[in-house]
């Protein structure tokens, strides 16, 4: 089921990248991707707060870019080269939420297919 959701997300992201191309701010891609999700009937939440638990202490302030269908974390970037720390960041999001699937989408790539990473636990 998560594979179907990730395929829908990727399809929407490809459409956004096809129309806009690379080089814009991450916030622009977030806004347009959410609009594309709405056009396609894909349920999503933006900037979802996630608590981090440290030795029985709840720390607030962490946010997911997007949570799609309540099951897939989507981290958006718009950079020339994806920093390695982004993978660790997304793994931390999965751990904090208890979810199993995430996508990193880097709109900074010339070909979006080169900027998509799927993470499954």
Features of the shown structure:
alpha+beta; globular; 39% helix; 5-stranded mixed beta sheet; Trna Endonuclease, Chain: A, domain 1; 3 helices; 5 strands; 121 residues
Contiguous uncertain segments of 5+ residues: none
Alpha-carbon distance between the termini?
14 Å
Could you say which structural class the secondary elements and strand pairing correspond to? alpha+beta
Q: How many domains?
A: 1
As a percent range, the share of helical residues equals 25-40%
Query: Got a strand count?
Result: 5
The spatial strand order of the largest sheet comes to 1-2-3-4-5
Residue fraction in strands: 25-35%
How many whole angstroms does the radius of gyration measure? 14 Å
Q: CATH topology, anyone?
A: Trna Endonuclease, Chain: A, domain 1
Morphology: globular
Class, according to the CATH hierarchy?
Answer: Alpha Beta
The H-and-E topology, N to C, reads as: HHEEEHEE
State the helix count. 3
* CATH level-two architecture: 3-Layer(aba) Sandwich
Determine the mean pLDDT.
92
- What kind of sheet is the major sheet? 5 strands, mixed
Any overview of this molecule?
The chain is an alpha+beta fold and 121 residues long. The chain has one domain (2-120): Trna Endonuclease, Chain: A, domain 1. It contains three helices and five strands, in the order ααβββαββ. The chain has helices spanning 2-20, 26-40, 85-97; strands at 44-54, 57-68, 72-77, 101-106, 116-120. A five-stranded mixed sheet has the order 1-2-3-4-5, with helices on both faces. β2 (57-68) and β3 (72-77) form a beta hairpin.
């Amino acid at each position: 089921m998560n594979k179907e959701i990730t395929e829908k997300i990727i399809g929407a992201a490809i459409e956004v990248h096809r129309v806009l191309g690379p080089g814009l701010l991450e916030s622009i891609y977030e806004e347009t991707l959410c609009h594309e999700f709405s056009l396609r009937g894909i349920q999503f939440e933006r900037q979802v707060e996630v608590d981090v638990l440290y030795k029985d202490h709840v720390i607030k302030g962490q946010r997911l870019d997007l949570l799609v269908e309540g099951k897939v974390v989507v981290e958006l970037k718009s950079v020339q080269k994806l920093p390695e720390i982004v993978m660790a960041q997304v793994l931390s999001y999965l751990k904090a939420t208890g979810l199993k699937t995430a996508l990193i989408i880097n709109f900074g790539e010339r070909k979006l297919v080169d900027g998509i990473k799927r993470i499954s636990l």
